[in-house]
Design a protein that fits this description.
Helices cover 36% and strands 20% of the residues. With 554 residues, the chain is α/β, with parallel strands linked by helices. Helix 7 packs across helix 9 (219-225), helix 10 crosses helix 11 and helix 15 packs parallel to helix 16 (391-400).
């Protein structure tokens, strides 16, 4: 009996010994790229630090020490031997309007100007430089400028612009996109008039003389859709996205969530064409716009677009709702309809992103309703734009599996909040999310916020403006996060928000090789200097997409 046991054990040992080299040969491959002598922060709690990486076919095949990576070198391997610089996963921007780059390229930008005379010169110059215009669209309009000019001249904003542009429609978006400055031609082709305003109870501002000139609410879409060219062309969007990608790469951004502010199949086509042409250098998750003035039947068209538009480097699994639009008294949605909408979207497998806009408590109740009807979701849906977060809200987010999306670069001020100092403890939370085990995702809200994630990381830690005096008192310092926490919010947690945590967000064998190298080790400098660090190399799927030669010496 003992002899039989010995023979069996000997056979098993020989089998194990025989197969071990074969397994090793399959695991040890000739890498396309090896980077050694670096300090790697992997964002992987199992293996948080490393000294070298190896990449093959766009994925990490080795993450570890310098000795172990030697086996991955071959005659065709590119080897980079660095000077102990910091290597991180590529940043993930959890809320970014990249396509609005088209506005900067193709529309008149009024942002640099501060009075009406400057507006006048800019508009007339733009017209003279573009004599064939069928419409004139502008962005960056400051309502205070036209209000001041109206008070001085006694003219309405509509009369002011009619004197400059009368033969073609003129529209200008306010900085926050909540109002539209229009001329008479734009009103004429849109079909809006005084009687419309009376029926809709003030959605269009008649101002002092009863003349239309400032359009609000749902009527913004009415005016825009009536323009000769209401949207950018596919080619314009493609050019804008390519320009955005260049800028994003300089900041180490390798993935973004892009919510649509309006329906645009041209934008979907542009992203799809760039993907097919191999020109996307970011992983994109798209959030299609849910129109509060359309019924539940729009879910069918959202599903059709989801089936049609999926690519190698982009996906569309998310829908975006704006709380103020959906829950406002002027919208077409009542409470029951809104609850039914989110339940149906969840049932159809959509990731739901709701911008709270002051309606946080009501929106949380909706997700509670969704969970009761459709079952538990493990951190699938997101709520953003939530300046105030009470302890009760934190408990609810954990209970219902909700992801908070924040913009850390704004954590340094109160943004007009009127609460007393002692009540600011609920404002701009960060540390509390981590303490409650919530996967808080950070973002830029580009172009309305600072694109560079290093600014957000610094402000999330210091709660002070990166470019202002450092001796100021920080806003509620108890909510200051650690560097590791902030990095997770810009990597693996933001990746979870967009449903891509299996592929990106960490440096781990088998994951997509998205990573960056900084000129400074931000773990070894004061938090107040983090925003001064620069990205010197950005890699997407193992391919270099940005290099700053002035700061890198292989």
């Amino acid at each position: 009996m003992k002899r039989r046991i010995f023979i069996v054990l000997l056979v098993l040992l020989l089998v194990a010994f025989h197969f071990k080299p074969i397994v090793a040969e399959e695991e040890i491959v000739q890498a396309d790229l090896v980077i050694e002598n670096v300090e790697v922060f992997t964002v992987d709690k199992v293996n948080e630090k490393a000294e070298a990486i190896a990449v093959k076919n766009g994925k990490f095949v080795y993450v570890g020490d310098r000795e172990g990576v030697q086996a991955y070198k071959g005659p065709k391997t590119k080897v980079m031997h660095l000077d102990n610089q910091l290597l991180l996963p590529g940043f993930v921007d959890g809320h970014n309007y990249a396509y609005l780059k088209a506005e900067k390229l193709y529309l008149l930008d009024l942002t640099p100007y501060s009075n009406f005379e400057q507006y006048k010169r800019a508009i007339l110059t733009y017209r003279s430089q573009n004599p064939q215009l069928r419409q004139l669209r502008a962005v960056g309009w400051n309502q205070n400028v036209t209000e001041e000019a109206s008070q001085k001249s006694g003219q309405t904003p509509r009369e002011l612009i009619d004197q400059l542009v009368s033969d073609i429609p003129f529209v200008a978006f306010s900085n926050h996109r909540d109002e539209l400055w229009v001329n008479s031609k734009a009103i004429e082709i849109s079909g809006l008039d005084v009687e419309t305003e009376k029926q809709e109870q003030g959605q269009i501002d008649l101002l002092e003389k009863g003349e239309l000139g400032v359009v609000q609410g749902q009527f913004i879409k009415v005016v825009i859709q009536s323009l000769p060219q209401p949207d950018f062309t596919v080619e314009q969007y493609k050019i804008a996205l390519l320009e955005f990608q260049k800028e994003a790469a300089t900041y180490g951004i390798t993935a973004v969530f892009i919510p649509f502010r309006y329906h645009s199949e041209n934008l979907l086509k542009a992203i799809d064409e760039l993907d097919q042409q191999g020109k996307l250098t970011l992983s994109y998750e798209l959030g299609l716009y849910v129109d509060p003035f359309k019924g539940l039947e729009q879910i069918d068209s959202l599903k059709e677009w989801r089936d049609k538009y999926q690519g190698e480097n982009y996906s569309y699994q998310t829908v975006k709702l704006y709380g103020a639009e959906v829950l406002s008294k002027d919208g077409s949605w009542n409470r029951d309809k809104f609850y039914q909408l989110l339940e149906l979207l969840d049932r159809e497998g959509f990731r739901i992103h709701v911008q709270a806009d002051g309606e946080l408590d009501e929106i949380v109740k909706v997700f509670e309703y969704v969970r009761e009807h459709n079952g538990k979701q493990n951190f699938k849906h997101t709520i953003s734009n939530i300046p105030f977060m009470t302890r009760e809200n934190l408990t609810q987010f954990r209970k219902f599996g909700l992801i908070p999306s924040v913009q850390p670069s704004l954590f340094y001020h109160t943004m007009g909040v009127k609460e007393k100092v002692e009540e600011l403890k609920d404002l701009h939370r960060m540390k509390s999310y981590f303490e409650r085990g919530l996967p808080v995702a950070s973002s830029s809200n580009y172009p309305f916020g600072e694109l560079n994630p290093l600014y957000g990381i610094e402000t999330g830690m210091t709660r002070l403006h990166a470019k202002e005096e450092k001796n100021l008192k920080p806003l509620w310092p108890k909510e200051s996060a650690t560097l590791k926490q902030m990095l997770r919010s810009y990597t693996i947690y933001a990746a979870r928000q967009i449903g891509k945590e299996e592929w990106i967000g960490k440096i781990r064998v088998g994951k997509q090789a998205d990573f960056i190298i900084l000129d400074k080790n931000i773990f070894k400098i004061p938090p107040s200097e983090i925003s001064e660090a620069k990205v010197v190399l950005t890699y997407f799927k193992g391919k270099e997409i940005y290099r700053d030669n002035s700061h890198i010496d292989e």
